[in-house]
């Protein structure tokens, strides 16, 4: 039985397979010729593998940068990392996590078919992370066996359908009406950034309209501008580390000159971003047309909810601004936590790049440059305070000194954990009942069959 669960978990936690499967079913539903089914199925798979390869390059180059900053500026504390906490939890809750993942994905499809939350969550690794969080928190409260799996699966399936709908009006502004949704569990941070943009960004011009003279026009090339920014980040980190702890630089450079190491690392990071963009274009070229088969034949009006990196090409300049100001917010949050005597949450490069960049994109969509700057900065603050608040909940489970990094994980973990502490199982069932009402209510209030909030708003 465990072998079968592991097999399905491996498939369902791989977004490449999940996207390929969705495309395959959609193309069959459209009665597409066989050769086009083959290419249309492989396109999203190869596109996501390309995206993942680019993301891997990005993460591999962010890790030494985090070390340089930590050692160069003498900062010690906890670095939030979804993969790290999941790997620890898997040793304790492996079967429970896999079972919740499968139930959650099936319920997501069920809710998409029979409610107005018609969003199909395609970011499988984030579903896996959420399944791990739910198994850990619910298990600590006292749930076990079938009750744990069904309740955890319900929360996963419900949030996978509800979270894209919450900010779909903002997502449509980001994509200029493209039929995709946000399928990433940092979503509430992005929607918050977009909301902030509506409050501060009146008459603020888009980050993509930055006026650059001809002699600086090369900065319009996203790959080049990203490379230059990251080289500067690396050089600062290397110089600081050489002053305080030169041995660390020697180990990271692995025989290279420190300056050459900084330049190569920054430029390699830019290559990773470029590969991500290419993968995104390949995904959208095949997935969106194939998804129409699902939307018209199997789950009418369904909308694919995709990874946050898919949105990067819509506002490449906002990606860099969002990363920079989210990281700044994380630093401010770290110092505030230190002043208050709390645990230091060291800004994790991976969450601040991916989540901060996306917050910048959403803030820019509603509030231009001001929205991108302030929205991503506030997102960065939350990426410090939420993991710090979640840490005690996870620490009781034996996961001390490791915590989830993204917005939704922190908020949901804190909500369930604190509710369980104060109200026990009854409190958790009340939250589940509220979610059930939220899922059903839109279908009761209106006869519309369209996906909730998936309407392009007219400009005023």
From TrEMBL:
<keyword id="KW-0762">Sugar transport</keyword>
<protein>
    <recommendedName>
        <fullName>Ascorbate-specific PTS system EIIC component</fullName>
    </recommendedName>
</protein>
<feature type="transmembrane region" description="Helical">
    <location>
        <begin position="127"/>
        <end position="160"/>
    </location>
</feature>
<feature type="transmembrane region" description="Helical">
    <location>
        <begin position="6"/>
        <end position="30"/>
    </location>
</feature>
<keyword id="KW-1133">Transmembrane helix</keyword>
<feature type="transmembrane region" description="Helical">
    <location>
        <begin position="218"/>
        <end position="239"/>
    </location>
</feature>
<feature type="transmembrane region" description="Helical">
    <location>
        <begin position="334"/>
        <end position="362"/>
    </location>
</feature>
<keyword id="KW-0598">Phosphotransferase system</keyword>
<feature type="transmembrane region" description="Helical">
    <location>
        <begin position="259"/>
        <end position="284"/>
    </location>
</feature>
<comment type="similarity">
    <text>Belongs to the UlaA family.</text>
</comment>
<comment type="subunit">
    <text>Homodimer.</text>
</comment>
<dbReference type="InterPro" id="IPR004703">
    <property type="entry name" value="PTS_sugar-sp_permease"/>
</dbReference>
<dbReference type="Pfam" id="PF03611">
    <property type="entry name" value="EIIC-GAT"/>
</dbReference>
<dbReference type="GO" id="GO:0009401">
    <property type="term" value="P:phosphoenolpyruvate-dependent sugar phosphotransferase system"/>
</dbReference>
<feature type="transmembrane region" description="Helical">
    <location>
        <begin position="37"/>
        <end position="58"/>
    </location>
</feature>
<dbReference type="GO" id="GO:0005886">
    <property type="term" value="C:plasma membrane"/>
</dbReference>
<keyword id="KW-0812">Transmembrane</keyword>
<feature type="transmembrane region" description="Helical">
    <location>
        <begin position="374"/>
        <end position="394"/>
    </location>
</feature>
<comment type="function">
    <text>The phosphoenolpyruvate-dependent sugar phosphotransferase system (sugar PTS), a major carbohydrate active transport system, catalyzes the phosphorylation of incoming sugar substrates concomitantly with their translocation across the cell membrane. The enzyme II UlaABC PTS system is involved in ascorbate transport.</text>
</comment>
<feature type="transmembrane region" description="Helical">
    <location>
        <begin position="180"/>
        <end position="197"/>
    </location>
</feature>
<keyword id="KW-0813">Transport</keyword>
<feature type="transmembrane region" description="Helical">
    <location>
        <begin position="97"/>
        <end position="115"/>
    </location>
</feature>
<keyword id="KW-0472">Membrane</keyword>
<feature type="transmembrane region" description="Helical">
    <location>
        <begin position="426"/>
        <end position="445"/>
    </location>
</feature>
<keyword id="KW-1003">Cell membrane</keyword>
<dbReference type="InterPro" id="IPR051562">
    <property type="entry name" value="Ascorbate-PTS_EIIC"/>
</dbReference>
